[in-house]
Amino acid sequence: MRASLPTRVRAVLDVTGHMRQIDLVGPDVPRLRCRPGAHVVVHVPQRRVYSVWRHDPRAASLSIRVALHDAGGPGCTWARSVAEGDRVTLEPPRSKITLDGTARFHLFAGDETGAVPLLAMRAALRGSTASVHGVFEAAQPADEVPGAAGVAPLPWVHRGGASPVASRVLLRAVQDLDLPPGPGAAYLAGEAGTCRLLQRHLVEQRGWPRRAVRVQPQWAPGHPGFGAGRD
Ligand SMILES: Cc1cc2nc3c(=O)[nH]c(=O)nc-3n(C[C@H](O)[C@H](O)[C@H](O)COP(=O)(O)OP(=O)(O)OC[C@H]3O[C@@H](n4cnc5c(N)ncnc54)[C@H](O)[C@@H]3O)c2cc1C
């Protein structure tokens, strides 16, 4: 598989007032191997990492969902202006966070950006007998990221004007979850400080083994190009 994959924008749609979905098509897309939760580097033209929301090999299409945040770096600027027909270069998918197929139950928690891979993973559990739990955080109800069609939604909490960094709102919501006894598999994604707080809660307060908690930090204040390596 080539390191740089040419694609073209097939469609752009507003998922919420602060998130855009960009559907890309390209000759290499059908051959990509995408596990639920995988991400791609997109040349915007700087390198920025986006989770794969949907991969449809038959339609040769791959969709990403980009949060439009106020600090607005190159990724946001690109997502705001990208249009049907634009050429976009991708790097092949990689996975940091993956589903644990042996888990007795699954727990998902994250902010708006974390919801993209986590809801894709949650959709992949369709038909699984293991129960699914979790909670997501958005600034306000209108920013809740819709999941895949036909999949039962998980609850959302709202931080209002509070900071999304090291979010106590999401921590409290996870602390309040009524979970089955014993560890399941947890998947945490979003702002790095929030992920750390949630991980510490599961390990130190609920006594889960560290390996049962899979974490994907996706952004942090003052860290442009988070997770993209060289810029
Ligand atoms: C594995 C992985 C998967 C990711 N998946 C997604 C995804 O599916 N969707 C998505 O939108 N992003 C995702 N991200 C984050 C994405 O890569 C970019 O970091 C993000 O879009 C910001 O890029 P930017 O160029 O606009 O800003 P940058 O130039 O990267 O950052 C400028 C500043 O903006 C602030 N900032 C960055 N992100 C946010 C935010 N969400 N809210 C508030 N302030 C912010 C920070 O203070 C930062 O210093 C993922 C990151 C990783 C590592």
Characteristics:
six-stranded antiparallel barrel; 11 strands; globular; alpha/beta; 2 domains; five-stranded parallel sheet; binds flavin-adenine dinucleotide; 231 residues
Rg value? 17 Å
* Ligands bound to this protein structure: flavin-adenine dinucleotide
Strand content: 25-35%
The overall pLDDT average reads 96
How far is it from the N-terminal to the C-terminal residue, by CA?
22 Å
| Total of domains | 2
Are there runs of 5+ residues with pLDDT below 50, and where?
A: none
CATH superfamily of the largest domain: Nucleotide-binding domain of ferredoxin-NADP reductase (FNR) module
* CATH architecture verdict of the largest domain: 3-Layer(aba) Sandwich
Overall spatial form: globular
Query: What topology, given as strand order, has the largest sheet?
Result: 1-2-5-4-3-6
CATH class division of the largest domain: Alpha Beta
The largest β sheet comes out as:
6 strands, antiparallel, barrel
What's the total count of β strands? 11
